[in-house]
């Protein structure tokens, strides 16, 4: 690798100081370069909005500072700031093994070093950066708070932090009628416990949860009370009055008088 003094003449090195702040200087994440909407109904929060969620109950959000390696395409040679932001925007709301969670927001990007490297003949500019990342890191057994957006016969769907889908099945002992009438409603907040986490091939996090035990007991009590109660507005059955008319069986049992036959003279 070339020395610092000969870096300008080295075709494998790219000077980053022309269009990017000096080493350690922050790159401001501008709203224009962010991706505000990932899909319908999901709005990615800004770094300021995500920072406010850090202290909310059951947020499972953490703030960390990480170093990252970035490979920029040649078209970003004169607009490295835009290239770095687009690289990070593409990773938002995707599960990352290195982060052990999902990237929700980032800010305060700092480029480490004065030069980027070009390896072989690929043309990509390799550099190291450091930034502040807010990550969503739920774990099995933890509690989350979501907003119900879907209702089903056997489950409800909700959004956590307005971005992450969670599915909560109906408890087995709760009747369908009670689940429909007294269960979670669209727009209401729902507290649940994480029982499984998974991610698909695209990196979309899938959360499966279960209702809190107290909430399940409430639904069971409602279900039992509705089954044991007598429906109102229906007349009670009246006892049949004894009939005074003789029945056919009684008439059959009554002994009949025999007629006397007259003797012929």
UniProtKB/TrEMBL annotation:
<dbReference type="GO" id="GO:0006362">
    <property type="term" value="P:transcription elongation by RNA polymerase I"/>
</dbReference>
<dbReference type="Pfam" id="PF03876">
    <property type="entry name" value="SHS2_Rpb7-N"/>
</dbReference>
<keyword id="KW-0539">Nucleus</keyword>
<keyword id="KW-0597">Phosphoprotein</keyword>
<dbReference type="Pfam" id="PF17875">
    <property type="entry name" value="RPA43_OB"/>
</dbReference>
<feature type="region of interest" description="Disordered">
    <location>
        <begin position="15"/>
        <end position="34"/>
    </location>
</feature>
<feature type="domain" description="RNA polymerase Rpb7-like N-terminal">
    <location>
        <begin position="68"/>
        <end position="123"/>
    </location>
</feature>
<comment type="function">
    <text>DNA-dependent RNA polymerase which catalyzes the transcription of DNA into RNA using the four ribonucleoside triphosphates as substrates.</text>
</comment>
<dbReference type="InterPro" id="IPR036898">
    <property type="entry name" value="RNA_pol_Rpb7-like_N_sf"/>
</dbReference>
<feature type="compositionally biased region" description="Basic residues">
    <location>
        <begin position="256"/>
        <end position="265"/>
    </location>
</feature>
<dbReference type="InterPro" id="IPR041901">
    <property type="entry name" value="RNAP_I_Rpa43_N"/>
</dbReference>
<dbReference type="GO" id="GO:0005736">
    <property type="term" value="C:RNA polymerase I complex"/>
</dbReference>
<feature type="domain" description="RPA43 OB">
    <location>
        <begin position="138"/>
        <end position="253"/>
    </location>
</feature>
<keyword id="KW-0804">Transcription</keyword>
<comment type="similarity">
    <text>Belongs to the eukaryotic RPA43 RNA polymerase subunit family.</text>
</comment>
<keyword id="KW-0240">DNA-directed RNA polymerase</keyword>
<dbReference type="InterPro" id="IPR005576">
    <property type="entry name" value="Rpb7-like_N"/>
</dbReference>
<protein>
    <recommendedName>
        <fullName>DNA-directed RNA polymerase subunit</fullName>
    </recommendedName>
</protein>
<dbReference type="GO" id="GO:0006352">
    <property type="term" value="P:DNA-templated transcription initiation"/>
</dbReference>
<dbReference type="InterPro" id="IPR041178">
    <property type="entry name" value="RPA43_OB"/>
</dbReference>
<feature type="region of interest" description="Disordered">
    <location>
        <begin position="222"/>
        <end position="265"/>
    </location>
</feature>
<dbReference type="InterPro" id="IPR045113">
    <property type="entry name" value="Rpb7-like"/>
</dbReference>
């Amino acid at each position: 690798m070339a020395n610092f003094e000969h870096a300008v003449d080295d075709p494998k090195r790219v000077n980053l100081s022309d269009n990017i702040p000096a080493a350690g200087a922050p790159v401001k994440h501008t709203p224009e370069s962010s991706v505000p909407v990932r899909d319908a109904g999901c709005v990615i929060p800004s770094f300021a909005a995500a920072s406010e969620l850090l202290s909310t109950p059951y947020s499972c959000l953490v703030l960390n500072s990480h170093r990252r390696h970035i490979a920029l395409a040649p078209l970003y040679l004169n607009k490295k700031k835009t290239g770095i932001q687009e690289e990070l925007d593409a990773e938002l709301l995707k599960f990352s093994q290195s982060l052990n969670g999902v990237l929700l927001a980032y800010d305060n990007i700092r480029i480490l070093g004065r030069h980027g490297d070009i390896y072989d003949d690929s043309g990509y500019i390799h550099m190291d950066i450091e930034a502040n990342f807010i990550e969503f890191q739920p774990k099995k057994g933890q509690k989350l708070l979501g907003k119900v957006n879907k209702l089903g016969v056997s489950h409800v769907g909700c959004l956590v932090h307005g971005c992450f889908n969670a599915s909560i099945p109906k408890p087995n002992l709760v009747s369908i009628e009670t689940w429909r009438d007294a269960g979670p409603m669209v727009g209401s907040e729902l507290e649940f416990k994480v029982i499984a986490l998974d991610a698909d091939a695209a990196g979309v996090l899938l959360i499966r949860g279960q209702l809190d035990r107290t909430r399940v007991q409430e639904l069971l009590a409602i279900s039992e009370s509705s089954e044991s109660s007598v429906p109102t507005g229906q007349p009670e059955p009246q006892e049949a009055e004894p009939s005074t008319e003789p029945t056919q069986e009684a008439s059959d049992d009554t002994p009949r008088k025999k007629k006397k036959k007259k003797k012929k003279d």
